[in-house]
Amino acid sequence: MPWEGRMFDPVPWLILLPLVWGCLTFLTGVGRGGRLVLAGLIIQLVLTIILARQIVMEGARHYAVGGWGAPLGVDLYVDGLTGIMLLLTHVVALPLVVYARAYFSSQAEGASYFWPLTCFLLAAMNALFMSADIFNIYVTLELLGLAAVGLVAAAGSAGSVTAAIRYLLVTLLGSGAYLMGVALLYGTYGSVSLAVLQPLLATTEISAAACLAAMLMLAGLLLKTALFPFHFWLPPAHGGAPAPVSALLSALVIKASFYLILRLWFDLFAPLVTTQAAQLLGGLGAAAILWGSILAFNQTRLKMLVAYSTVAQIGYLFLLFPLMTSAIPGAAESAMQGGVMQLVAHALAKAAMFAAAGVMVLSAGKDDIALLGGMSSHLPLTLFTFALAGITLMGLPPSGGFIAKWLLIDSAVSGGQWGWVVVMILGGLLSAAYVFKVLRQAFLPPVAGIKFKPVIRMLEWPAFLLALISLLLGFRSVEVLNLLGAA
Questions:
Q1: pLDDT < 50 regions, the chain
Q2: Does 95 sit behind a cis peptide bond, omega within 30 degrees of 0 on the bond before it?
Q3: What confidence tens digit (pLDDT) does each residue in 74-122 have?
């Protein structure tokens, strides 16, 4: 059946529905609306599954909002990569909403506006993934950043407000740089539509304004993705927020800006890309892997360890850029597949790890790794969840992280880029070091005077489910790669 003849199209509803849920949660009262959001996310997950099947069967396509497409109107665009990001968003968000309901029943701090802000955040992410013009991408970036800042500040403590202000300044700086690039492109080519700009950049002489626009837009997105050395804002924001917020930010929000870097790098700005620029991004990714892992190992707070682990794991995503420059047949394809698999595996594992860390902190009463002695007997399922997520981050079989790193290493070996292989192996060893630091402490005898508080069992199962999915992803990676092929 052709796309134009469909009576029901899930594309607009994936943006409209979370906005509706967000508005309705305000009417239910402060701190309420969890059931409504849970029901809404179930519906949205079904819609994303329908959309993914349509993409696999019938390919990518544009959706003209209001019947007016580009260049006069607004287009939405969905393809295989879009489908992966939408599915990942809802597969991660649904268990986290269940987790958040249990978490805020035990810890009210940060619950006030969690539900509407989460809905607006999801609406912004869905719109960002499907946006087909660079100005609408800016609008969705701003909405996403403001919702994320609100979630960080919702706890109300001095530390969380300080982290939120730093996060706000960073996100405004990144969005401002991106907007200046948009203005330069519009002033030069007279359009903001990706479908119009891409052939213009490919067929006309590259102007200085286009080069400057590319640098500004990519720099703004790198800042939002927290790639080393732009990572300074991430650990305080992710480490100081309530556990459900930390999981959402680390698993999903920073992936949105990386998704845009992929889109712009390989589509719009492909004629401007150089091997030197790709090697630079790879070098920053390698530095992130090593430096972030070392800082993670040196942390004394559990959530800060997990936050610095995010800094390290982001680095793997940027290794695909130099690997994609290989002229060896199949090497570039393996690099792209490995990068996307790393994105998916990390999102699932990091959501599980932050959720598990939140349970341990709630039980111990303090965010201190040294106080985790005896946790293995008190919360065995939560510790097992942390270990499963760690397996994915280390890249051990049969996890999705193993498939991702295998594909990246295969691409590097095929292209003769052995330096990146060394970096990935060292990164896996360093990941093992900080994961086992936590596990070792949890198996030690309890610290004198520390009594663990009981926790709601519903706090443990959503985190375990996310960790299990990240592990089983290694067995079902072909479905992800088939959907990617629809791009």
A1: 1-5
A2: no
A3: 788 999 999 999 999 999 999 999 999 888 887 766 667 888 999 999 9
CA distance 134 to 452: 50
pLDDT in tens, 252-289: 999 999 999 999 998 888 888 888 999 999 999 999 99
Tell me what pLDDT residue 426 has: 95
Angle between helices 158-189 and 208-225 (to 10 degrees): 160
How far apart CA 277 and CA 272 sit, in angstroms, is: 10
With b meaning 16 or more CB within 10 Å and e meaning fewer, what string describes 263-279?
bbbbebbeebbeeebbe
Burial (0-12, 13-18, 19+ Cβ within 10 Å), 445: exposed
Residue whose C-alpha is closest to residue 397's, from 306, 475, 317:
475
User: In the chain, what are the domain boundaries?
Assistant: 274-487
Rounded distance, CA 125 to CA 438, Å? 33
- The answer to whether the CB of 175 falls within 8 A of the CB of 145 is yes
Q: How far apart are CA 266 and CA 278, in angstroms?
A: 11
341, 477 in Cβ contact below 8 A? yes
59 closest CA partner among 77, 42, 72, 46 = 77
